[in-house]
Amino acid sequence: MPPAKKKKAKQSKASGVSKGTRRSTLKKRKVKRFEHLYVWGRRVALTCLGLAFFAWVGVVFFLSDADTNAMNWIKGKTISIAGDAGYRVENIMVEGRKYSDPDVLLALINIAQGDSIFLFNPDEAKAQIEKIGWVKSARVERRLPDTIYIKLQERRPLALWQNGEALSLIDSEGTLLTQDNLGRFKDLLMIRGKGAPEKAQELLSLLAAEQALESLLDHADLVDGRRWDLYLNDGKRIKLPENDIGLAMRNMMLRHEQDNILGKDSITVIDARYQGRLIIRTKLGKVQDYKAGLIDASASL
């Protein structure tokens, strides 16, 4: 029996130690949690105080105009340090330039070799470059450490527009590109008339499908802003309708393939405005017979 009592006593002692250990552990956890909350609370309080202080200083700084001078000084120092570190313009790469004047481009970006690359503002340069008549859009980048990259999308020259005595180069959207150095574009079609630039793209597209006619053209006049008159190199005048221009051209060229009407010196005017027929005017005293579907109207036109 005595041994049993000793065992019980040992169990009781072990249980007492276990309970004491739990109380101690819980107490330590409460202390640590309190310390943790205290630390974070202190940090938040200090952060709020710091923000309030800097906000107050910023207001005073701004109202006193000291911010401008300080920022300029900081900016200047940063640019100077960056330049000393090798961030200077060494290369100006331009992609897509065919017609734009390179000297004008350099003047507009306003940066020179050896300047700090951080003096260059890509957005401002893009806005200036897109003011050039030739440029439809531009992408401008600052590629560290030493390169400025410019990609141009230039407008495509379409025709020469004569407006009074002024001669201008236009693109497919009717945008005036330039009035200078037009000799290199002498092979483009000349158009005349108010509103002609906006309608030129449609006419040129239809003419591209009738290359035999296109090769004979001297110029085209827009009449009353509605329809075109074509003038051939030999002086012939072709009156086109307001609508269905392509169909009228095709019918006329079919007749030309049969009777060579565009090659006859006696013909001065071909009126293709009427569906299904051509009205031909000839020189006085040179009346010719044509196949069915053609009406000689030299006296009435």
What does the model show?
This protein is an alpha/beta fold and 301 residues long. The chain has three domains: 17-64; 87-154, Roll (Ubiquitin-like (UB roll)); 157-296, Cell division protein FtsQ/DivIB (Rossmann fold). The chain is built from seven helices and 13 strands. It has helices at 2-63, 66-84, 102-109, 122-129, 196-208, 211-214, 245-259, and strands spanning 91-95, 135-143, 147-154, 157-163, 166-171, 176-178, 190-192, 217-223, 227-232, 237-239, 267-271, 278-282, 294-296. It has a ten-stranded mixed sheet with strand order 6-5-4-7-8-9-10-11-12-13, covered by helices on one side. Strands 1-3-2 form a three-stranded mixed sheet. Strand 4 and strand 5 form a beta hairpin. The protein is elongated.
Summarize the structure.
The protein has 301 residues and is α/β, with parallel strands linked by helices. The protein has helices at residues 2-63, 66-84, 102-109, 122-129, 196-208, 211-214, 245-259, and strands spanning 91-95, 135-143, 147-154, 157-163, 166-171, 176-178, 190-192, 217-223, 227-232, 237-239, 267-271, 278-282, 294-296. The protein folds into 3 domains: 17-64; 87-154, Ubiquitin-like (UB roll) (Roll), CATH 3.10.20.310; 157-296, 3-Layer(aba) Sandwich (Rossmann fold), CATH 3.40.50.11690.
